[in-house]
Amino acid sequence: MGPILSALQKLAPDLQPLLVHTGQHYDSVMSDLFFSQLGLPAPAAHLEVGSGAQGEQTAKVLSRYEAWLLSCSPRPVATVVVGDVNSTVACALASVKLGIPVVHVEAGLRSFDRTMPEEINRVITDAIAELLLVSEPSGVGNLLREGRPETAIRLVGNVMIDVLLAQLPTAKALNQVSTLGLIKGGFVLWTMHRPSNVDDQPVLEAMARAMIRISEALPVVFPVHPRTRARLESSGLWTELAAARGVKLTPPLGYLECLSLSSQARIVITDSGGLQEESTVLGIPCLTLRENTERPVTVTEGTSTLTGQDTVLLQRLVLDVMEGRYKQGRVPELWDGKAGERIAQALISFLG
């Protein structure tokens, strides 16, 4: 939202965008710190939804956002939703039922895996949105196949890359590498939080053991998501990882701290879609712990390779990187740091 709000302020100063924080992401490091680091304005509303089961959380966001919309005078003329989280689909549903058009940023992304809650959120949101702003060419094709009109679709590029390019000098200046006693290009950054990797005990064990083996060749920095830490502690794996000399466990990182590391890592190992995108632009090999991805351009053009839960393949690819055999990628079309401006122009045109 940062680049979008900045571009709207510059290109359409008469518009009055209001930022709503649903509270779905409520950890202080993973929420409040992002606002301060990225220069986001204070939210006009905070729905304070918090954690919960998929249905419970989605219902809370829908109910509370609907109530907020009804309290507004005048009524908002559109709702802009981003990404594929529960808040995305819930706010979209609340809006269209009140006759408020929805604009979806990052529309059209598909993993074609409907066991992923995010995939359901994406499909539903795109079905009811009136303006579909797409980050990569595959999204355009997906939306057309699903019957969305071509006039509703705009290929605008990846707004997350605007953030990365704007924040990269500041992130590097933090020098997290030296703080952790590492050397540039001499470590692995590993993140993992998806249920498919952390909720299945045998899979989690295999990943932890692979991390320890890889750390014997290259130090591994592992910022631990709260969900992942809970699973590691309940299974006894936390003690094993903490005892491994090459594994550096850290609390969750702010955006800048994480970018400071990802931009200077030798390898990124992750199940995060965002890090798939960022590593592609940074030119860092990315081994993605997923069977599929809604961001296929990071695989076909970028630096990402899907390893799924195959830890043997994972370790072989780490060796390929270290010995110079890993593929080179390129930056996809329109991932140029100007997506926020294109999104703002599309919004201005849409709103007349």
Explained architecture:
There is one protein chain. This protein is of the alpha/beta class and 352 residues long. It folds into two domains: 2-157 and 335-351, 3-Layer(aba) Sandwich (Rossmann fold), CATH 3.40.50.2000; 164-322, Glycogen Phosphorylase B (Rossmann fold, 3-Layer(aba) Sandwich), CATH 3.40.50. Helices cover 48% and strands 12% of the residues. It contains 17 helices and twelve strands. The strands form three sheets. Strands 9-8-7-10-11-12 form a six-stranded parallel sheet, with helices on both faces. It has a four-stranded parallel sheet with strand order 3-4-5-6, with helices on both faces. Strands 1-2 form a two-stranded parallel sheet. The mean pLDDT is 95.
**What is the gyration radius calculated from CA atoms?**
20 Å
CATH topology of the largest domain: Rossmann fold
Number of helices: 17
- How would you describe the shape? globular
Q: From the helix content, strand content and strand pairing, which structural class follows? A: alpha/beta
Question: Unreliable stretches, pLDDT < 50, 5 or more residues?
Answer: none
